[in-house]
Design a protein that fits this description.
Chain lengths: 660, 636
Amino acid sequence: MYSKELTSKKRDEFEDILEERRLSSDLRYAMKCYTPVIYKGLSPCKPNAIKSAVLQSEQVQYVIKQLAKEMGESPDIIQEEATEILDEMGHSMQLGAVRFFAFTLSKIFKRLFQRVCVNEEGMQRLQHAIQEHPVVLLPSHRSYVDFLMLSYLLYTYDLALPVIAAGIDFLGMKIVGELLRRAGAFFMRRSFGGNRLYWAVFAEYVKTMLRSGYAPIEFFLEGTRSRTAKTLTPKFGLLSIVMEPFFKREVFDTYLVPISISYERILEESLYAYELLGVPKPKESTSGLLKARRILSDNFGTIHIYVGEPVSLRTLASGRINRCPYNLVPRHLPQKPSEDIQEFVSDVAYKMELLQIENMVLSPWVLVAAVLLQNLPAMDFELLIEKTLWLKGLTQTFGGFIEWPDNLCAKKAVVSSLTLHSNIARLVDGRVVLNDKGVEDGAVGEIVFKRALAILMCATYRNQLLNVFVRPSLVAVALQMTRSFRREEVYSCFSFLRDVFSDEFVFFPGISLKDFEEGCFLLTKCDAIQTTQQEIYPTDKGSAIVSFLSAMFRPFVEGYQLIFRYLSKETKEAFTEKQFIPGVRNFVFQLLEKGKTQCYEVLSSDMQKNALAALVQLGAVKKKKMSNGFTYNVNQEAVNKILDMFDARIPVQKPVAARL
Amino acid sequence: MAAAAEEAAGSGGGSPSSARRRLRIISGHLRGSPRAPEREALSPSPCKAQGGSAEPASGSIPKKRQELLKWNGWGYNDSKFIFNKKGQAEFTGKRYRLGGMVLPTFKEWIEKTFGASLEHKTTSRASLNVNDVPPSIVNEEFLQDLRATKISYSQDAEDRVFRAHGHCLHEIFVLREGMFKRIPDIVVWPVCHEDVVKIVELACKHNLCIIPFGGGTSVSSALECPEEEKRTIVSLDTSQMNRILWIDEKNLTACVEAGIVGQDLEKQLAESGFCTGHEPDSMEFSSLGGWVATRASGMKKNIYGNIEDLVIHIKMVTPRGIVEKNCQVPRMSTGPDIHHFIMGSEGTLGVVTEVTIKIRPVPEYQKYGSVVFPNFERGVACLREVAKQRCAPASIRLVDNAQFQFGHALKPQVASIFTSFLDGLKKFYITKFKGFDPNILCVATLLFEGDREKVLQHEKQVYDIATKFGGLAAGEDNGQRGYMLTFVIAYLRDLGLDYYVIGESFETSVPWDRVLDLCRNVKERIVRECKEKGVQFAPLSTCRVTQTYDAGACVYFYFAFNYRGISDPIHVYEQIERAAREEILANGGSLSHHHGVGKLRKRWMKESISDVGLGMLRSVKEYVDPNNIFGNKNLL
């Protein structure tokens, strides 16, 4: 799963694509001769031809007939409905719109960003892949800029523009929605689990485009923009749709291309923080976009896009898939994937996300933010530089991909980071201070809110480190929690934490022991611990690392404890998620106001939801589907038990792998 | 045994007597071939046939096979591809229509397709080195008992080696360059059912292993002796059981001894005006018993049916005794059909000795035809429609573009300027006027058979359907050459082996909706595997849809590559073939349509027929042959 020589892993060089844009005419660029390379098996067709092929397909016709029979309606009416769905969803890629975007995006990107860096070798690999087999692009999702940027990038490199699965809420934006559609976006409803017709039409639409090799298909494994900049655990629906043509051998192979897009400064950073704190996200609207224009005068630093090695689905599947289920049912019948397949899809999804994480560029500011958050409210500038440099070394040991701009000296790098992020932290009299003061000092509540806002924004950047650090760090946390050196106990605790945080961080399913060994290996590599067959203990000089790592994850450990405590005490009856979030928020808010905790991050609705999901998975909370969504029921005793394990009042009781 | 090569060229096309002529040509193969001298010491005991002519028939294949057939390759000694002094390809001998003809474009094709060069040649050993042959170990008591039966036998090294193999690539390679680790210890030639009964009894008494041998055309490693077999291995050669015992014109059946080879069966039936119509590609050499044992399929199955449709009654000698039905009826409802335990048993249960088979009057008229399609997809769609309307001609096959080009390369030198002018015109019409891409188009070949009037009517119906799918009639000659190609390919492998090119064919059956995907994916898989395994030149990877059914089709693949620069070509070849089979199974294809399982495809049997299914077959084997006398280890 993980390569042992993380630091020596060779990564490609970056190239700034904006550089040329600053030197030559955008108009000429937008009007350039655009003849992308295409899939070798492509039979050229127009978007409308695809739509009618989808409508006429056996798959869709089958579902239409079924529904007609069940509902006693005429198939024509349902066919009509399917046409409407398709019109709502379908893209209508036009070169004109693409050129329009090429022009305007050039203008906008040049104002927003200093540089847009791309690994050219990745683009070359992609170019080969597109010709060979159908390609699925799997970018990380941190911002709306993601898919605009990716299309812009492919246009720049003369590659076929992707068709993009986008949420249907974009359609609310009048002109922009239509423009996006013409640039190749197709829209999916956020949830359509129950609607068989929608599912059939949608799945067939995606598969038809994939099979014909019409264009690369792009979607986000994370399902939505990660508001915390921490990779979200994957969604499987779309992935299993694009994998199906291969399972059914309608295509020889399919390439999955993980793409990591990282922003030195995220466009939506403050929006996200507000949203996490419960101030609702503004609905996508064109006027909203226009209002956001003022951000155009702001500087958002550098974007790094790393196009990963295309992964052959055939190679991944070799020896894993029992072919029988697909041979015994006609291929056009809707078929629930077998457990094998579901497990495989899930594994692939996690693998792709881990690849995204591995290739995600980390900026110096990410390190600064991580250090700063452990030294609130202010810290000495020189110390910050020193710590940042130290953390840089550690990050690289753990396989983090740091791009240090132009080999700047540490001081300059930190200063330039602080300048870019002056809305979060400032340099005042040789000390770096978090920017958490309102314009005027208001009530206590106001202060807590402002502070939480600043901390969450800062955390957004530290979060980018977490998935690189999570394995060694959870070993460190486990070491501190168990206060024992016995390998067995440490592993039990690690494994417990891994389960609890399974929605918070990205772990490849079912390899707890491997993750543990990986964590231990990395800690040994940086001389933080020594291990024997039976024991693990921190070295003398390693205690600094161990305590830094566990401090890094403390907000999560403490945050989860607070949430669990809330659930064990404050809630009696069944509740919905809509009741849970404000409830836990108020609970924490009060504690913060009274100064009983310093854990501001637990105000993040993201953490609250993850903690609830974790309890559901651990069986301490029952989740029930009701007509109007889900309701939850707490099993107080079970939650208390988990709390006790956190407090190390009782040893973690888990069956320990025999091989340890 | 199973089909590996197409039957001889056949007749000249649309004349009423063409079917007869086709048979005459087949019988012509025999004329002039030396009759094998009987071994003096051993004279066959005359057998009483039930009511038929007691005279032992003279078969086309002598007991000393090597006197007529190649010892290290396919087919007749006198028929092979060579490069003549001018460096042009030529086919020798007079047995086939292609015999003595020069093929001017073939050399270029072979160089272009495989990157092969006439300068790089490997040569086979000139003859078998008798000293390398494993010794014959037979215990004296058995020999005494055997002599008492007066059944002809031999412990001669050549006789034994030539019954130790079929025609898989690795087997031929071993003949050319090495030696089998285990071969039969003794060859016996029973001449009738009773002889077989005696041999099986002796084998049970002395605990020997019997491996039945029919035509020796197996391509599934079915004839290879299991290396670990410690008992004496008796190769039971059925070739001398080759009489037609009786013909029943009222019920249109004939009772035939199982050792008869296809060409003799058709030739002898033709004398009475009948045929079976069963024409697997190997029919010159493969035997009736072999067809039954492997569930063979014939080219003209659309009219006559496959072996399971043709067989009325089977007599098989097993260690438990004789198994047969009590009547000769078209169908019966008496539990699972015991014929289906026998058909496809691949020599693991016993020896098929006599078969009653359906016969038909020889058709009055036969006509070839061909249709060009703009691409393979359209061609498959047309075949599917033909199958749907159930109007398939005796044979309908669709070759892909690579095979079309291959067929083209085998076009003999044209005799007159007029013909070449006509060819040019045809080509112009199809490629320029109709806009077919010569690198994409594909061809269907057709064979119609029956009453003249009905054939013409039928022909029109099929061509009408073809037109709907963009097909253009492309003449009888192209059709006929297409059928010739199948038989030629088996001889071609021997030529390829001389120039570092190895190859083989394999087949499958697949539902209609998966035909295109399967063909594309398997061909692609072969190309990729070759690249991965370090094959330096792109392989020939080509297929044809060779049979149509209501619910699917049989697809036949040819795969060959130039192995220069590879140290262990056979191993590489086998890995690629295995990958191709995996691909077939993953695409919803079957393990085999008619070649059988043998030992080559055993590993996939469980997956193919489920655990319980395999158990069912095993329990039959355990009952019928508890001591594994028929120990060729095929199938299970």
